[in-house]
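To whoever picks this up:

The nightly regression suite flagged WD repeat-containing protein 75 second beta-propeller domain-containing protein as changed. Nothing in the input moved, so I suspect the structure step. Input below, exactly as stored in the fixture:
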Amino acid sequence: MQKPACVTRSLQQLNTQTPIHPSHCAPSLSSPIKYSIDGRYLFQREAHVIHIRHPRTGHILHQCLRINDAPNATKSIPLAPVTCITLHPLNALQLYAAYSDHQVILWDFTEEKQLKSFHADYPVFWMHVSIQQPWMLHMVIGLKSSYSYVYYNVQHARKQQTFSEKNVPISAIALHSVDSAKQNEKVDYVAIACDRHMELLCLHPKKTDSTADSIAVQRYTFDHNQKVTSVAWNPKDSVVEFALGDDSGQIHLYHLQADQAARKLSTASFRVHSKLHWHAHTLRCLRYSLDGQFLVSGGEECVLVFWHLATGRRSYLPRRSAPILAITARKDSNAKDTTRPSTVGYGVLLDDHVLFQYNSVTREEEWHVSGFARSGTSARLTLPNFEILEAFKGLAPTMVFDPITGTLPLNGQSSVGLMQFYDPLQDRVVQNLQLTERNPVTRTESGDAMVVTTAQKWLFSPCGQYFITLQAEVVSRGGNKDRLTPQNHTLRWWKRREDGSFFLHTAVDAPHGNSRVTCMVYSPDTRYLQRNWMATGDENGEFRLWKLGPSSSANDVTIWQCHAVVRHRPYPITSMQFSSDGSILAVAYGNLLTIWKTETTSLGAVFASADGNAIIEMFFSDIATPFIIVKTIHQLQTWNLLTLALAWEHSFSSEKSWVCLHPTRSAVTICTPISSVANEKCDFSLLEIDIVTNVVRSENRFEMPGDTSIWALSFAPKCENQAPAVVLMDEVSNMWMLSLSDSSDTTDRQKLKAEDTSDPRGKLAGILPFGTTNSENQSKTSNKNGVHSMESKDSSIELFDAPSHVLPPISSMYRHFMDGFISKKTETHPTVKDSHPLTEMTEPSRPQSKSKPFHANLKRWTNGLKMEMLSDSTSSNVSIDHFYLSRMLSTRSRDVSLQDAVSLDSFPLNFESSSASSDNSHRLLEEEHARKMARAQYQRKQREKWQERTANSPFRVNLIAEIERVDEENRVQRLKAQEIVQKREKDAIENEIFVVSKSEEEMCDIEKLRSEKRAIIQEEKRLRSLLALEMSNLHRKEDLSAAKLAERRRKALIKESKRVQRLQEEETQRRRYQKLLKEKHGIIA
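Regenerated output under the current build:
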């Protein structure tokens, strides 16, 4: 068979949280979130997109997306991410955005269009529009080996003036404009931090006669004792105060009077106003409230801290899912006093792309938006693989989609084990699942090991009712670069609620004892309770079957329990898979494949892989084919389970390969990297091979952007009327999609669509029988050929065979009832020739095929009316009774005229033979005319009588208009009620804000009284301490005198003891002397 043509396709990036290339990321100088000046918009930059959100709901109102003007825009090229944004000071609907390709664009974000753009020649890391000169930009640009703070002219697109140049990266920068009352102009204060070095600049325009824009600069420098990580200015104009946070978590407030700073900054001495310390790790962001009374800080502790600067008190917002990345303050746009700006809330961005708004008045989280947490980070943690199986090369992790919502569960960045259900096609997080109930923990010192809970493996039941996770405590030693060691495995079954969330159903600690789990698989067939299995395998060759059954403690409670334990060989289990009906379990021990019966756990067959390599993945084909697909590091093998013979094999061109089954066909899809060929830039090949015939159905090639490779691959959840697509995850957790649409799929979908549109039953297709069109066509064909065909009585559509929720409107059912009634009347009185003299005269000579024209036309008309009704053409402005009667009478008169014409054609000689026949025909025509007039008068009387009888009939009412009128009245009432409720809520919020503001104003007086009370208490403590000191001195003197007396006594005793000892020695000496004298002189006692 001829090999299909190779098609080159391009990838589409699904996530937009981080740049494609990490080298494009800018230093964290510019905040990624910012409120508008009036607080009506929230701006967020994500990769190459700027989102404009509503501050009350967080919904995206506009998106500023650059149009790629490159000639190869259709290819998957990296898009330049946004490095910084700043607002226009004079136009609230415009903002400047700088990109990594050195482009700076002025956006009108409400219209989503570019107003102006220029090339900055250097990467821009931070910028701010000058209030004094809106055509000038303050910029921090990166040179080859230095960073410069410059003044940039937008009109001429050139660098106007350089204020500062640093040889080391700038770690933080902030700008603040203060009104100078003496000079009647604004003065810009800039704080620049480079590691421990701080530089303060005072910028004001020079008063010269030249037209060039020049700025006078005053400098003040000092060194901090730690590395400075964040800087923020107090927004009040009356003081010049800024706060800096360092690497140790301390906050230092520096203060200087504004008039002193305006005179001469170089000789001014900044003094430390106060020092705040609560954070234990690096301080990432600082933000003052708009009134300057509060300071908000955040860091690695995942806690938001609010400092009241007047009293030093603090409050907390703990238990965030990740470290705080950025904070911005929102102005109250409804505040009555515009001279005193008040902060109504704060926008906070976390390190896992979670954005939420915190109301500082009510102290509640108003809304939050979750993003793809680990986008741009290592995929080894986002979608982990079993560490014990990493020795077997070629093993790739599996992407598991939720069978109900189509979302993809992935690991988050929280240390407590947070799983995100991410929808890659819509780039949003649907829900989060916290695996543990403990609070987030952080390291104690730099380089300490941290215990992080992550999910190592997860899967869904086929119906989506259960979600199973295998989680472990991962010890990180020295950061992400070192090896992670899983410990304390726990197997958990989560059950889905009606609202889609999950709750813990069963938890099993150490499911395989001290052995680590290497495989998990769920039975694909859950139609029977005995087939609702789950299997797990470990590193020692033991696998266990788990089954849902009644609990031993409570009969009415069902839990997951271990049903069987099987150990066949003492080798690690590398792969497991159930058959399509769940009756067979295939277990791979390295290069050996064993087949087990699920219900009896008995061994059915054992065979080895064809190439002798370890089996790392297995797939069962559909239930109609007895094949099992086995993947090794070098080959893809298909075995026939009936004959235990190798059906076919396919060799890989590389050790890295990815295999998955096609969702709609009996085929397997293989993705392998290929070497680059001249004039081709495709790095990967995607083959689709038929499982039964081993025929390559299609071949697609694509290129991965940059130097990244594929980490995992799977087919996207099947959507209605959409071509199959492959979802890929690269090594830095970016999501991509490759569409595999072809001509055959398009033709099938077009045929299906044509069949749906050609069905006259419309919305009732598939429920009502389809027989009217065929019978009508058959009757037309038979009439054309001159052959009589009696229409079947059951050819009409029985409307009431359909369910009640798909029945047509009342008017349509009334028409169907009238059609049946008229048909029954015509069957009861099939002909009207008894009252027609012309018909009586001509009836014997008429052919049989032209009998009953009125009944046939009426039948065709009723069938046609049913078809119109089924095609939703039921609206009419004519009253129902008048419509049916006039239609019936017009049809009747038309049929009678047709009878007359037929009768005249049957006897042409009777009208041409003589004048008598002409007189007779003239008389007959006059009688016919009189008869028609009488019949019309009779019908008019009958119609008036019918209208009089049906004057109060409910079918004369236009029910659709009545329902619409009632709905409109209800809608107006609901809107009025909603406006009343909104007004009450608004009044309540305004009253609450008024009470809070009053309480804050009275807080100063209360704090004064408290400070006086504290001073009095301190004075009392001081006096008490002095009295205690005096008493202690007195006791000390007494103790000294007693000690001296005791010392004198002790010395006297010592002296007395020495004297007695000396006397005893003298006595002893004297006696010895006497004894010696006696012995010398011979004196005997």
